[in-house]
């Protein structure tokens, strides 16, 4: 990590935001980092945002909830830190002059700010997979055209990124995305029908935010990752396979024409892929524990069960149909997961509602092409409305 770098973290108060700051702190302690924090953002967590801003001497902080602007100002009194509130302030944070922007807002809410940072030519460390699912071509074109780099943070994509031969993509025969299988890997459909939010967020290997934890339980996370992979790597979706690997040691693999399979391995700790994106193409130490192979002892693999986990099938159907379907799937899932977490619907309703919305969108309009941000936003809005209706219908039943 040579040279002074300006860093912005969109979604700094979340799980990925925390891990990013911890990698930076570790690197600084080890004399490996020379950075300043340009901007930090959050949705509602004023206290934590202000504490991070103070500790890392951020120049600008933004809170997405505009009713909290005064609270944020009050929490920063006496400090030379600018602040703003509302979605526009989060976008303003993204537009500030940082070289490296960690996109770690959860959900499609991250799309516009990430796009702003991309259009400025910043390197985009991408954790916020939903923004690629929602508008993959638009985001990747913006990064490319402005001259920044897309550095995947998702552990699977980060793994593939490390072993993918971008100069000879035609020599790649398969990407193998590994999945832990989540907390319900061995549960029957009947057992899952009464799964609680607390059970769904209790991931066996990874510590993450609530939404992605539920996505890992439905395997929608892997479905979103399948879609994400098609935008990051020049490989068609039918050459991307999903493989359940409960130990989460092999983070993903690339198979080449000669039969060689290259993999990246490590402990299940997001600080490793984050450190990779911060140093790339160099390497820098990270605070994550190193792998102890004797302790791991066994690596096992299973084919995913599409019957018990229909979200995987839905994601394949959405990417195959293209157009607005991935954005619609993502939006429907966001609404359904939020409702499940709030106790509004049952666990199995998440995939059922997502399917219902895809059917509705497909029947209503046919899978239109999606080429502009406005179209992506409209597709997202339409699917949210349909999903909200489906949630309300279940509540009334
Ligand atoms: P968290 O829920 O822990 O954090 C989300 C962050 O986004 C918080 O800073 C939150 O602020 C902010 N935020 C939430 N809603 C909005 C909004 N409407 N507008 C602006 N900011 C908002 O999520 P994670 O850190 O777990 O995940 C972040 C992203 O990274 C997701 O896309 C996820 O899929 C991806 N990812 C996460 C991994 C992980 O290990 N956690 C692994 C791989 C990918 P506040 O704190 O105020 O609510």
Bound small-molecule species: NADPH dihydro-nicotinamide-adenine-dinucleotide phosphate
- Number of helical regions: 17
If you consult CATH, what is the topology of the largest domain?
A: Rna Polymerase Sigma Factor, Chain: A
Rg calculated over all Cα atoms: 20 Å
Report the top-level CATH class of the largest domain. Answer: Mainly Alpha
Compute the average pLDDT. Answer: 96
Main sheet attributes: strand count, strand direction, barrel closure? 7 strands, parallel
Biggest sheet strand order reads 4-3-2-1-5-6-7
Q: Care to count the β-strands?
A: 11
N-to-C order of helices and strands? EHEHEHEHEHEHEHEHHHHEEEHHHHHH
How many distinct domains? 2
What share of residues are in beta strands?
5-15%
Shape by Cα distribution: globular
What is the CATH architecture annotation of the largest domain? Orthogonal Bundle
The separation of the N and C termini measures 57 Å
